[in-house]
Amino acid sequence: MDYENEDFQEKETGKATRRAHRARRVDAMQMWRNGTIDEKPIKERWSREFKNPRLKRLKNPLENFNAEKTVEGLVVEVHRRTCEVRLDSQTVTAIYRATTVGELGEFPAVGDYVVLGESSAGEFCVVRVKKRKSALTRPGPKDSHRRELTLAANVDQVVIVVSLAEPPFNYGFADRFLLAARLNELPCILVLTKTDLVKELPAEVKDFMEIVDKVVFVSSITGEGVDKLSELLAGKVSVFSGQSGVGKTSLINRLVPTASLKTGTVRFKDGKGRHTTTSSSLLDLPSGGIVIDTPGIRALGLLNLEPETLSGIFPGFFPDGRFTCKYSNCLHLEEPGCAVRSAVENGTLSKARLDSYLRILNAKD
Fold this sequence. Notes:
The protein is an alpha/beta fold. The protein has helices at residues 3-13, 18-24, 28-33, 98-104, 171-183, 203-209, 226-233, 248-255, 307-313, 339-345, 351-363; strands spanning 42-45, 54-57, 71-78, 82-86, 91-95, 113-118, 124-129, 135-139, 148-153, 157-163, 188-193, 214-217, 237-241, 281-284, 290-293. It folds into 4 domains: 17-57, no CATH class; 67-131, CATH 2.40.50.140; 151-293, Rossmann fold, CATH 3.40.50.300; 307-363, Ribonucleotide Reductase Protein R1, domain 1, CATH 1.10.40.
């Protein structure tokens, strides 16, 4: 970049270019990381016209908070810069600064147990997130440096909600949630909704039912299966996941009558669901236990899963858990001695299982 020409342009026109302004800025944080300055830096803030630079010192997350007044609570809802935290006697709004997130390495998530500091003005701030025993994640925004975002933390089981029609059963989507559950060593319950819309189960649904821990057929209209599902949820923290339009929100409204969550219909154009749940939230079941309702996302991230790991743990490939392919790094593509392809050829494994695996494997490339 020719900055001298830009300076000349500025002198001739009397108007500075924004690019020239940006080139003159000093990144104090980068200087600190590089060792150019010793102390934690001050953050420079400039006006749009590069006038009146102001210096703002970066604050310690614990600054202005009394360490003796910290309390522990459960995160029940998360917003952009705040989260709702349930304490023993009340639910409070707690802020988390950007510097706090930097120390944590993670945003607080629904289901997290956090330590709050209280200021002299009665404000609360998240100063620490306690260690998680499990988490359900999804891909972060494309323009974010965070590759994954946590949807829910500290769950006991995953409930995959899928519909038999409108929208039809999505094999690959269900597989991703099942994989996430297996990676966290969590039991998985498959909930099949809209049973009143089909006369016979599709072959791919029957195939998937064989590899999950438990299956429940429910209808939010007739109430079929709701009592059975309630028994499986009692006393546990269950995270509900499913695509938009499968009836997840309607089902939760039946399980938790006080929830009154907003529901929507599927789009006529493509049969896909409309998003009604925009963020994860925690709800108490009347009979005991907790439901964490997550947004109806269309994809679940498995970004940190190596292809060799995926090929070895994919549900249904090796019923006894023992890898039987000839080569330990077999990806079940065209390798000789592949036990998975042999099972498909002899009919002991459905081709739908292999096709679902290949879609996920190719999506990670």
